[in-house]
Design goal:
By secondary structure, the chain is α/β, with parallel strands linked by helices. The chain is built from ten helices and nine strands.
Length: 315
């Protein structure tokens, strides 16, 4: 039995196999509609979520399985003081696999240590978000045709952005990757991510404050929200906040093949006028997350892929 708590839990080869399966599902979802018949996923979300929770539920339903769970700590026995370890022991008797989001870093790891079913980390505090990374990798590979030899700009809150941390660790294993880290000084990536995810692996990177100075050199611009609550002063926030709003004017400086990605939800860091630009793929990215999670569920449950039927049509 395996869990998926960190993108590094899978080797590059194993990740590629999951992404290959996700692509086959995307091409022909009807073939997979009964793969999880009789199986159940428990979505244990101790904090709010729209895309992650619903995409896990859609993934299992698309595979022919069932869903149970809770959408907030207040609607579970956590409100009565029940521990994560006890909750997963109970859930293990109800479901075949569990996706857990928790505000405390390491909570899914604790759950995995006590679980008799596979546990998927659906986000733990500011630590990791491996299935968002799986979604991001699938989006990049599908739309770019590769996962190496590119320059990725990560923009916004890089200190507390768990999606950013996971993506750095995952992409740093591919050849020819270069990062441009765009953030105010207060929200730069943690030293642990810089040292273990970049410097220890010899990954080329640079840190800048102005998006306009580097957008022209990016193959991918990955936007995240600048969080007002992280600033030490209102004046400092007001000075920098507009620098991290992507609008049509800034987008003119980007290359014609640059992909604009965002884990969502957005607030105002991407103007709605950007949505119709063909380079803006964040809504497609969210849609691709269903296929990526379908492939992950099948992989962790060790389910056989259905055989291709003669004359079967693909999308």
């Amino acid at each position: 039995m395996r869990h998926f708590l960190n993108p590094l839990d899978f080797t590059v080869e194993e990740l590629d196999q999951v992404l290959d399966l996700a692509e086959r599902i995307r091409q022909n979802p009807a073939r997979y509609q009964e793969v999880c018949k009789g199986k159940k996923i428990a979505t244990c979300f101790y904090e709010p979520s729209t895309r992650t929770r619903l995409s896990f539920e859609a993934a299992m339903l698309n595979l022919g399985g069932s869903v149970l769970g809770f959408s907030s700590a207040d609607s579970s026995s956590a409100a009565k003081g029940e521990s994560v370890a006890d909750t997963i022991r109970i859930i293990s008797g109800y479901a075949d696999i569990c996706a857990m989001r928790h505000p405390k870093e390491g909570a899914p790891l604790v759950a995995a240590s006590k679980s008799s079913i596979p546990v998927i980390n659906a986000g733990d505090g500011g630590h990791q978000h491996p299935t968002q990374t799986l979604t991001d990798l699938f989006t990049i590979r599908t739309l770019k045709g590769r996962l190496g030899n590119m320059t990725i700009g990560l923009c916004g809150d890089l200190k507390f952005g768990r999606t950013v941390h996971s993506l750095i660790y995952a992409l740093s294993r591919y050849a020819g990757i270069r990062f441009v880290l765009i953030s105010p000084e207060q929200l730069r990536i943690p030293s642990s991510v810089r040292q273990l995810g970049l410097e220890a692996k010899g990954i080329e990177y640079k840190e800048v404050e102005r998006l306009e100075d580097v957008i022209s050199e990016l193959d991918i611009l990955y936007m995240t929200r600048i969080q007002k609550e992280r600033f030490f002063s209102e004046d400092e926030y007001l000075r920098l906040k507009d620098s991290y709003i992507l609008d049509k004017e800034k987008l003119k400086m980007a290359g014609p093949d640059c992909l604009i990605m965002h884990p969502l939800p957005r607030v105002n860091e991407i103007s709605t006028e950007v949505d119709d630009d063909p380079r803006a793929v964040y809504f497609k990215q969210a849609h691709f997350g269903v296929f990526a999670r379908m492939a992950l569920i099948m992989t962790l449950l060790e389910l056989k892929e259905p055989e291709e039927k003669e004359g079967e049509a693909t999308c």
